[in-house]
């Protein structure tokens, strides 16, 4: 791609920009933030690492949303982060207003772009952005499942002692406490994780995966996670930029898949240069389907708040 704009030059936005630049996934990266000097300083700091990391990507910063003009992909990390004790839903009202302002400018300045939502609550805000934009669902999607699955794979590696390179995990549902870690689709070099760990340990990993973001927030106290989320964003951008047609768990607008419509949920999707190319529908057991429906209910409750 030629140009990617990241709206939000906080820790997630900064780490994302550095990952994208080092991988040379586009020619130009623009960081936009309301705080004067912050996106400019962040962009310059990353730019000065180019000779060390050997990349030619050019970075600039701006306080004006019009800077996203001509972007092929807009990544939104802007918004207030949650504080200890807060859920992702607790920041919905404030972040919704932020997202609407970005989306309105996106319609005017980059009407042909794709939108990758990162700001929480990501499922609901992806849905809200899609409704306001009126774009095909292929061009509006969110990041959550790549992060949640990476966290789960990390915990499996820590528990088993096996190389993380051999571990694949899958997490479905809303990006919150009701997410659905799919142990049946979690494998170590193709071998189901149940072969190596007892159900008690697997249950502990599932619980830790659901609470992973809160665990980091509790430990740091003044900052939520940013390195792992940024790495997850970069994985999705790599699939787009290099047209990999890669299967990744992402937040997608559902249109009948998994028996759901008019909702954004975390599901396996095919990511390519066209964006979210299609949803992959996994066969769920009755227990998994029930968990997925419970997760959908929590997302649906927040979506209903948008309509009031």
UniProtKB/TrEMBL annotation:
It catalyses: (S)-malate + NAD(+) = oxaloacetate + NADH + H(+). It holds the Pfam family Ldh_1_N. Keywords: NAD, Oxidoreductase, Tricarboxylic acid cycle. The active site is at residue 175. It is an enzyme of class 1 (oxidoreductase). SUPFAM superfamilies: LDH C-terminal domain-like, NAD(P)-binding Rossmann-fold domains. Residues 3-142 form the Lactate/malate dehydrogenase N-terminal domain. Substrate binds at residues 82, 88, 120, 151. Its EC number is 1.1.1.37. GO terms for molecular function: L-lactate dehydrogenase (NAD+) activity; L-malate dehydrogenase (NAD+) activity. NAD(+) binds at residues 8-13, 33, 95, 118-120. The keyword NAD applies. InterPro entries: L-lactate/malate_DH, Lactate/malate_DH_C, Lactate/malate_DH_N, Lactate_DH/Glyco_Ohase_4_C, Malate_DH_type3, NAD(P)-bd_dom_sf. One of its GO terms (biological process) is lactate metabolic process. Signal peptide: none annotated. Residues 147-306 form the Lactate/malate dehydrogenase C-terminal domain. Catalyzes the reversible oxidation of malate to oxaloacetate. NCBIfam families: MalateDH_bact, PRK06223.1. Belongs to the LDH/MDH superfamily. MDH type 3 family. This is Malate dehydrogenase. It comes from Candidatus Muproteobacteria bacterium RIFCSPHIGHO2_01_FULL_65_16.
